Predict the structure.
Amino acid sequence: MKKFLRLITLRFLADPKSIKTKDYISRKRTKMIFTVLFVFLFVWILIFNIGQMTVLGTIRGQNLGELAQEKYVVDRVLEPNRGKIYDRNGNILADNIESYKLVAVLSDKASEGLDESAQKLHVVDKEKTAEELSKIINLDKSNILDILNNDKAYQVEFGSYGKDISIENKKKIESLNLPGLKFETTTKRYYPNGTLLGNFLGFAQSSDDSNLIVGRLGIEKVFDYYLRGKNGRIIYARDAWGKVVSNEPTTEIKPVDGSDVYLTIDKNIQSFIDNSLSDIQSKYEPESAFAVAVSAKTGEILGIGQTPAFNPNTKENISGAWTNAIYNSALEPGSTMKTYSLAIMIENGIYDPNKTYLSGSYRVEDAVIRDYNRVGWGTITYRHGFQESSNTLMLTMLESLGTDKLKYGLEKFGFGKVTNSLFENESRGELAFGNKVSASTTVFGQGSTVTPIQMLQAETAIVNDGEMLKPYFLQKIHDKTSDVYVNKGERTVVSNPISKETAEKTREELYGVVNGEWANGGLKYKLEGYSVAGKTGTAEIVNPDTGTYYSSPYKVMHSFIGYAPSDNPEVILYTAIKLPTKNAVQNYNNAAKELFNPIMTNILDYLNVQKEKSESNNIMYKMNNYVGQNVNSVISNLSKHTENTVLIGNGTTVLQQFPNADSTVNVNDKVFVVTSRENIILPNFKGWSKVDVLRYKELTGIDLEIEGNGYVKEQSVAANKIIKSGDKLKVKLE
């Protein structure tokens, strides 16, 4: 008890001296004891922490291994190269190119150790930096300042605005000589053909928090799983100064590059479509227009375009034209729908080309429906009525058929449901059979809505003896891991909505629309050298302000869906021009002629489809194999058949020819003979067709830019000048 009282009263701190002075507590002894206690506690804490680190590997609740790894071990994702997109002939439609990411260093530690005269490595004047950058990277000065005023970050980025910086803008920023700005090399998606196929290809770009390029729209999004590839990973150690520690093992898992996607699109056919659409946009400024070309025998989509369109590189016009008009938009087709209504009538034994009816008007309940000329043509035959695109003919036949059978027949043609084409957000349209009036107007293409891809799919049944083909755009995917082609597209029969006999009879009537005795609107779609069959359409458009159809005859959609040659179809082409805002009267008179005719002619010429014989153009000959022969003897031999031989190069031996051996050639067609691709004497292109110019470009390898449609009017380099492969040349057509 005495010892306890001595402890709590601190008497143990007393010594003789302190007792003598009546202080009772010795300062010397107090210092000594507390020093011993402090050392004792420190040693035990040290022993405890060392034991904790040794046994548990933690300190203050944090794992030491994790802390060291976080500070000295780098674990970085390795992004793969995104796969490329090609057309059917191997031309690149979507590629990857080097770009740059802008970074601003904020911490003044980056400039430590520099001479006073040296430029700082961190941002010094934030106000000036923000002001200058705002002129280049399309981000407001205030937003840039907000980013630069981050006091906690060593360096900052500028989100999507600082990514995909072009080499031109990089040079502009570097020329500003602003301290603290630097660039990291990255990759961005590039579309070498600009707006060509923009709304079909869509676009891909890296996200704000990653350099991985991801498909955002269109084909890029549809096949993103294949194109994207798989991330890799690299793990290595670095010391306190950021240098790689060479004696520590490095773990690396290489990324797997994305697969390449090949489409059925033909870049040359696509250029025919885009050039014609550009001309239409310039001339009529329509609300929209489109053109789609499909192989009649396989269902492959050869070209697909629309206007307005957006540029996937710059995203210009994307806010007003980001959807794909062929897959995502449903429309009232107008009289082109009569193609399938007629086929249904024939299939059910309703249509008799020689039977007569009274044209002009037809009453459905309280609605009076008239032919386009308001008065009709009196009592005429069914064939006459179809060639005139008579609405009352279709209503007369519908009375015998019944709306239920019409709906069933249209559903068999694929209307009212998606084509399962793989394209994102495909619309199904709507067959409006809710009341008798809408069901009745559906027979001639008003009231119900369809998509252009549904129309093309249905047309394949007409040209393939009742076999309806699935339109497809994927040719193949190249898997780089196994070096094999997977997911190959192929001809696929969806169903047989009509019989072979019905298809043959329908083709006969469609031929009459363009070439028949009473052909009217269809006459303008006749082509020189090729027979065309198809159906015209003039669809009324709903005024969004009133909910009723426009009353003006110029506020409509003109269209034509046809195929050629009519006796052995190679190509189906669907074209439309909706609501022209300029030169409306001229568009009313020409309808879709200025879109359909040049595209179809150029495609058939390009595919080397044999032209029809005529009195002035019926001399044909068979092409020999001239490769490897002396050029002089070849020219002499060809002169017996044609005066249109084009010699390429100044060699003595034929290296290549077009047309190929055993082809049947018209005497008026050009024959190309290649002897070399150096020191080429440029011909006079005046009067050449676009197809011939494209063929010359392909055979010579020269960089040839083509502007316009029709025939060559002028060329940038004069005839008889010597050029070589890679030289640039421009020709204008009209």
User: Anything to note?
Assistant: The mean pLDDT is 88.
